Fold these 2 entries.
Entry 1:
Amino acid sequence: MAKQRNIIVGQSGGPTAVINSSLAGVYKTAKERGFHTIYGMLHGVQGLLDEQYVDLSTQIHSDMDIELLKRTPSAFLGSCRYKLPEIHEDVAIYERIFEILDKLEIEAFVYIGGNDSMDTIKKLSDYAIIKGHKQKFLGVPKTIDNDLALTDHTPGFGSAAKYIATSTKEVIRDATGMTYNDKEAITIIEVMGRNAGWLTGATALARTEECEGPDLIYLPEVVFDIDKFLDKTKELLAKKESVVIAVSEGIKVADGRYVCELSGGADYVDAFGHKQLQGTAAYLAGFLGKETGCKTRSIEFSTLQRSASHMASRVDVNEAFMVGGAAVKAADEGESGKMVVIDRLSDDPYTSAVGIYDVHRIANNEKVVPREWINEEGDYVTDAFINYIEPLIQGFYQPFMVNGLPQHLVLKK
Amino acid sequence: MAKQRNIIVGQSGGPTAVINSSLAGVYKTAKERGFHTIYGMLHGVQGLLDEQYVDLSTQIHSDMDIELLKRTPSAFLGSCRYKLPEIHEDVAIYERIFEILDKLEIEAFVYIGGNDSMDTIKKLSDYAIIKGHKQKFLGVPKTIDNDLALTDHTPGFGSAAKYIATSTKEVIRDATGMTYNDKEAITIIEVMGRNAGWLTGATALARTEECEGPDLIYLPEVVFDIDKFLDKTKELLAKKESVVIAVSEGIKVADGRYVCELSGGADYVDAFGHKQLQGTAAYLAGFLGKETGCKTRSIEFSTLQRSASHMASRVDVNEAFMVGGAAVKAADEGESGKMVVIDRLSDDPYTSAVGIYDVHRIANNEKVVPREWINEEGDYVTDAFINYIEPLIQGFYQPFMVNGLPQHLVLKK
């Protein structure tokens, strides 16, 4: 019997609104390129090690299902936060993975994820080279955080930015409508982004013809000075009734502590040793309430900023689909240990294309907001920052509404 | 010079996604009925007392502006939380208001708001009758809380319910995708609703063909039993990896304390003596984390549930517009001291019509979820509840997207 040409795809790390659009792109291109069985790992490499996978043809039955998948947030296959050990630390795990891949007659392994997932691609492709395995390993970028190096931006970022900017506009309208005369109010919005302030900066998109946008924006790239923050807020309160401030969950004071740690919170640590940050806005709202006597409110956009596919950017959905397909194409053409990236070709009109980079150049390098894209005071982003983001939130990808709610494609077990 | 036929309209209380659709309905019908100047009070009666108002023809220039207004969340004119004193307590305030109304040659006064606003309509119309003033006073219902008596439901509720159900589906997808094997996780969603659980119950709409919906739902209508809550959660954790629970911000334990007070928070009190409630989900997440050892996350839908016009229900937008127009029509036909209500004519197909009720029958009566629409255990809503809500979230009211974001009509001062 001739060896089958099979392919396996997995999803890893925090979800995005368009991570399944990449999965749809992988599926569609794999079918078009004649792969026999298209497997999906359940919960990434962690599930694979438990031999948890599905044949995707049992899940996706039509072009309409592909379109529905593109509109489904969060990892359709399930995600994981699993870090592969270094090869020399635990060869057995690598042997186990390749044993399963061989058994399934896998030719190409596509992993959709962020920095940590590209590390997985790097290790698996290194191991394959060392041991002479033939499988190809390709990475598809995915993260709302936009912190991957070498790609102009990451799929998932545009939709998160669009949701955040939309919600910020709505929060500003709400806060403005409720304040009158000498009853000032302060609203603090907390946005995801541990070390990179891309998403927090996206709140600046709410500054439009008819909306003043947030008054202050604090990114984790700049040390947070709480005294200066208080002074600035007081200055604003002297001029306007409703002050809206956006802060990254990851802002830190000069001694290196996260702001959310100042109140003694934040004790959950994930498998990568990342602290789970929550409570930055709540802490600052409490602080400003005490210092100014104003009514304050803290708002966390929480997991909705990474899962609100009902406000996905059409540019983002399409690019996510494109990079998924491009990874399969690259693997099929013999590439391995590479990540597909997005190259920006022009700004106006915005156009982009895929590129392929060696994953060794990418893994574990976090791309933060350049200092020159943050104003000198460290409390807003510049026009260059906004010009960079704006094309990425364009276009609306209409949800499939069923009984008044967006419909999703969900794994049948 | 002949006396002008002028009209004034104001907005009061917490905003909704469609409160401006009612304003648009008032404006359009007032123009059609030949009112001369259509004034808008800025920040309701409180602004009126400071002679803060605008001529709406300086703000709304076209039918397209009317459509944009219908898509703008939060009170376009600004809102207030101002409680009129009883007439016998402070006659001077009433004299002041009527002096301003006489000066502006106002014939009809339309107030868009909730329970507290209907109280304002009642007092002003009572005062007008006592003193022989000719102005007509009409109330237009508005509240996401759906707690007004005599109307089948309130404008604003359907859109909030649609946003909440949509976001709940997305949160469930996100939480489900992230949990694997024996790593269970608990997500607690906090929904607005001090005494009435209509909005929290709306999370049940997320239970669809492809989504299991929240696992437990706790409304303020039922005393919250934290031990039973813990037992139920543990039972669920034994069966499934991701448990999602919706709670109202207003749930109380047997001794009458709010759950969010158990941690010692909630000290802000508004002008009506209402405590500002926040932190119920955070408290319960902390509690469950300690008791079960699971990873927990709390999510507050915050002010977005009342301002997310990007996910407005078409039924709701149209009904809000309809009741605004009906109030002007009623005033023009000589009614006063009345509130326009929505009568449900049939469920399938859903149809509704306006009715007019004496505001004395309405004011200060809070409509809560009937006990028989909550299951016996007090931890979910029944099918009857869902059948009641479902028609109200139907249809999508496409935002006007400009540069990738929903556009709003904003007051020019």
Entry 2:
Amino acid sequence: MTETIVKIDLSKSAYENDMIHNRWHPDIPMVATVKPGDDFIMECYDWTGGQIENNDNADDVRDVDLTQVHFLSGPVGVEGAEPGDLLVVDILDIGAFQESQWGFNGFFSKQNGGGFLTEHFPDAQKSIWDFNGMFTKSRHIPGVEFAGLIHPGLIGCLPSKDLLDTWNEREKELYDTNPDRVPTLANLPYADTAHMGRMKPDEAKVAAAEGARTVPPREHGGNCDIKDLSRGSKVYFPVYVKGGGLSVGDLHFSQGDGEITFCGAIEMAGWIHMRVNLVKNGMEMYGVKNPIFKPSPIKPVYDDYVIFEGISVDEDGGQHFLDVNVAYRQACLNAIEFLTKFGYSKAQGYALLGCAPVQGHISGVVDVPNACATLWLPTEIFDFDINPTAEGPKKMVDGTIDIPLSKDKE
Amino acid sequence: MTETIVKIDLSKSAYENDMIHNRWHPDIPMVATVKPGDDFIMECYDWTGGQIENNDNADDVRDVDLTQVHFLSGPVGVEGAEPGDLLVVDILDIGAFQESQWGFNGFFSKQNGGGFLTEHFPDAQKSIWDFNGMFTKSRHIPGVEFAGLIHPGLIGCLPSKDLLDTWNEREKELYDTNPDRVPTLANLPYADTAHMGRMKPDEAKVAAAEGARTVPPREHGGNCDIKDLSRGSKVYFPVYVKGGGLSVGDLHFSQGDGEITFCGAIEMAGWIHMRVNLVKNGMEMYGVKNPIFKPSPIKPVYDDYVIFEGISVDEDGGQHFLDVNVAYRQACLNAIEFLTKFGYSKAQGYALLGCAPVQGHISGVVDVPNACATLWLPTEIFDFDINPTAEGPKKMVDGTIDIPLSKDKE
Amino acid sequence: MTETIVKIDLSKSAYENDMIHNRWHPDIPMVATVKPGDDFIMECYDWTGGQIENNDNADDVRDVDLTQVHFLSGPVGVEGAEPGDLLVVDILDIGAFQESQWGFNGFFSKQNGGGFLTEHFPDAQKSIWDFNGMFTKSRHIPGVEFAGLIHPGLIGCLPSKDLLDTWNEREKELYDTNPDRVPTLANLPYADTAHMGRMKPDEAKVAAAEGARTVPPREHGGNCDIKDLSRGSKVYFPVYVKGGGLSVGDLHFSQGDGEITFCGAIEMAGWIHMRVNLVKNGMEMYGVKNPIFKPSPIKPVYDDYVIFEGISVDEDGGQHFLDVNVAYRQACLNAIEFLTKFGYSKAQGYALLGCAPVQGHISGVVDVPNACATLWLPTEIFDFDINPTAEGPKKMVDGTIDIPLSKDKE
Amino acid sequence: MTETIVKIDLSKSAYENDMIHNRWHPDIPMVATVKPGDDFIMECYDWTGGQIENNDNADDVRDVDLTQVHFLSGPVGVEGAEPGDLLVVDILDIGAFQESQWGFNGFFSKQNGGGFLTEHFPDAQKSIWDFNGMFTKSRHIPGVEFAGLIHPGLIGCLPSKDLLDTWNEREKELYDTNPDRVPTLANLPYADTAHMGRMKPDEAKVAAAEGARTVPPREHGGNCDIKDLSRGSKVYFPVYVKGGGLSVGDLHFSQGDGEITFCGAIEMAGWIHMRVNLVKNGMEMYGVKNPIFKPSPIKPVYDDYVIFEGISVDEDGGQHFLDVNVAYRQACLNAIEFLTKFGYSKAQGYALLGCAPVQGHISGVVDVPNACATLWLPTEIFDFDINPTAEGPKKMVDGTIDIPLSKDKE
């Protein structure tokens, strides 16, 4: 029977568990050591460490303490792993705990992190998703059910000290260009809420002050939020410290490309089953800077889509130069508008794009001045037909249900 | 037998054919009128109108006159089409001419348009691709062969006068922010090389001065360069003028997401077979601003990929804020580096990413400050195995062949 | 939390559990009643009720008591279900028990049931498969690993008395044409080893004498062994008795089309999570005699195959008339021969065709006198490349390992 | 430009073209010789050589002379091909002639060949299919349109004299068991209508008396009618004579597994573009007896199905022993019954199963006494939704159109 090398207790704070950490630092001690070829299971808190509850009130999303995120399980050492190697991780399976078959999606208040469409959705909102075997649906968004494309939002190896310094420097530099921006330009080290795993208190105090926040994806992978890193995929991670130090968390039951709602995917606590191997000296042999990976043979296939285009002209008519973000934002807004024709609120539409396995493609990035991006909305996740017809759309959702909203406190 | 309503003669200049135009203007006369439900064929020049030849010299790519592009066939009027409708276009088939079974891909000189990676590839280069039935390979890039994902790079309806004015204003505004930039920020109207189809000379002269250039994708679709608009797909185009006025051109035998080489895909002359229908008042009924479409059931399926991540830290270590372009550029550069390990030159790698059906996904756009993009490289297009192994890569390409390069003239 | 309405204890005999039965009879009492729309979990013994063990000895396969099979969980009643309805079953998930992450495949001795190729493999053999998350591999067949296409081999509703009588009559009639045949032509009712669930002893005794054996698929579905009835699929079962009476068992981690090894797939104990609904009067409305179903969106996709043809000329050169069984047997033998070129024993090849998600297509059934069948072998399940090349196959398996065999007792 | 090595003139009889033949014989002279690595085009008559016309009358199907079929193009010699080699054929593309964009499907009269369901459809009927680019629809079967899965029904190399003798002997032996059967058990050599290509008259006369008929699939491939041998696939054919002698014909625009209507698929005249290579001594190296092949990356993907089960109990309740033909016949009849609920005639349903890309799977062949087969009907080919719902089916086809029928002459 496969060993579970990190166990958690959802009824206790993540801070009490020394196999958890929420900052990146080369000196966080390994919680276990495995051999190449081994497979093992790690249990994970949801990314907020349990701050969000299964109820119909978005206050917890509004009041979330984002300095705590993300709670990661690990790091796990791999015998023989050395800087320059590639750590090959087969994601063999992922699941929610039997007693916790649900997840959440939310929009943060613009004052507390926001999201991709925060100008349009400035208030905290959340939706709860129940898991039914391999499928999920939400009591807050009627008429949809889909199979989970379960994946870890955050996974990677510990950075070296040099790499950590590089991260801190470049992000500080950006931050300093507009330190008062809301939402912030970057999340700098913040010691108060750091959880440094098994580091001794004195060392932890020092490390916490320089430990990188877990929010952005970086060279090592990290918070890539790539929906396709799903169970069945095979990932090659750069190794920067002896032993590698693989940490993982932020499990998602499902997510759309872009994780546009920021909070984020369908977020859940659960477990992940992995196997590790090494490609010695793989970084140089294959010229690898960021992780590379191979897709899973066992992902949900929703093959029929309605696809929305967006170009880099913003919603006020402003012309941007080859800006894919603006283009993708337009594609998202176009999809949300389309969904309202079937009776959904805009917030329900936004949540759906964050949760369902929508694809976001970079379609054109050279035809000055407009980038073109496409948002692929799978039609088969709906209980009714959303394909355009000559007769026009039917209101299939009656508008009596919306997703909970909590206004900012005065 | 299906009628060919636009015929072309590749041995003659596109300017001599009055069923061709290379600017967008509401007053360009229809070249034919069809009924809803009709299917028909239109022949198309390649986007440059024959400026690039099937040889091993990139001078023609270096010296291309980009003020001439793109040569479009049409516009075709549809009975009953009125502003506010959606014109439904089934792309039934697309092909190259029997006597012209080849296409080209190129990088423009940085001084003449450049491309997505123009800082890395500042000189004009080109590769020629031979078509073998549904497949293609290039004498300039050994070891790859793949099925065509044939599609029109450019298709859409005529703009209204209001829409045209909006385009010209916003693009001029951007252009004026840095009129000396090389490459240019936007291509403004340019009368000298305009081809206004069947407009009478006097009217054409006036219209040419305000006709929008065909380079960028815009609200009507236009030069979207969406590889998935392939034969078998169904597209819903906004209608802005009576009759719609559907024009099409810039046929591609294959292209990767982003069309990163700008010149661009595997470009070809050929024909397109389409069927049209109407959704009356569809723009309002479905809330459609940009075209929406449905994918084809008959596209090539390359299901095994090596996937490269990129984040919005540029190649000099500069930190950008959630910039998907920077992230996708990194993913592309990572893929090119990887390909060199098998013996390809960087230019061959770059060309491959522009030509082969690679996918570009917007993976994360909210995890400040780093956007994350992924480049999906299909493994099955190669004659050899490019999957990473513990043994490392083998040089399968011996480097004796490269793609032609032409330095800028002094 | 979803209710588990049938629980089992693997350490106890299936005969001790009154929520289990191994015969079909209309009077077997429901073990629970659910409402349309409900989802629930049922635990299941492996089809033999635990006769086969996780070891390297095939004696248990040789000595299996096939009069006991299959041990089914249920029947479950559905409120409002009446004869003539269709019971809609969504298979939401299926899994092995955490403490029992393995399965078995075997060939029965020709004297005890045989299999599709029993003339070529007359002795009992078995292979053990370990489950690693969503994947499996066997210590008896090196070089292969694949994702589970998990499904119930046997599922359906209780027959009416009339239907039961029809079954018994027609099978007896066939049996009587050659009662001494080995293997047998049909398995007739057999009271000695019958387990009639919660029937009272007296009634059970009578019913056992007429209860249909569970071996063949019949009008109600039953032992269809359709690999595509996997988790995520939706099945419409005919209802013959009030309440429906849904029973299920014979869980398979994976299986090839045809279940050619008879014992059978990768057989396992585990649990199944289902949701039920009704289409009232659906049998007549849709003209349904046998179950119909829809495939899952979340099945493993192995898209690259080597495909073997077979025609209805047998291995001795005998000409058969449009016989698909003979044709498929040839295709299977051709595939096994091919696999030996890479170092596998014929028995390993046979086991692979029974376990891996191979497809069996009926390709031609009208071109007298030869039927044509095809066997699709997915290439991606192998650790090495099995595609034919000009260089010829390499022995990738060294022949030191074979699957255990137990000769018949004298 | 690719060379067309066999040209045909649809206005002339196939008998006048010496690059055509309709029997298999080792001595038929090559019509051209190509080198390994070459690609070339061959034009092909429809299988009947033009006996069936594009009209609304089934008399031509009733009166067809089946002793003439199939008219094949070739044989083509390949330099260096020797007995024991594998001839690797890449099917690069296939198409209908521009002036002949249509095909036919028919049921033969029971007295003249019949079909898989001839007891249910004893009269001659036909449907005409128009091709619209990559798609087809029929004026005789409203409400369906689908993409072509274009393939050659018949392709293979010339047999050796020994192999020819084996064929003739075993088929004669079967024929003699019931020489009066209608339809016949086998089609024996028949000199009167033989077309022996470029053989000299005297030699042709002798060879015609022993030339094998082209109807059944055999060891060399031949009339396999495998829908998946579509453009983009790669086939490995056994070589039996020096030069190989590749012949091809019986092009199909689309076909369902089993080609159950016998006449057959959507039959058409057209051209095929192929590339050839050799695996020297491949038959022994890979243990190949029948052709093996790899599927195309560019076939139509219809991923949503309603799937029908059938078991080996015939329509009169008769019990058969593990007979896949009976099981598949039941699955087909079940699907036809289902389609009538939407308004189709049974004949329209039958024709659809012969023409559309339905799959036929061998699901279970070991659970005595019932085989289980499944018929997969793609839902996306219909203009309306055929999925079962609680509301029941709607008559979407009004029954005013049926497919033409011609009664047998008295």
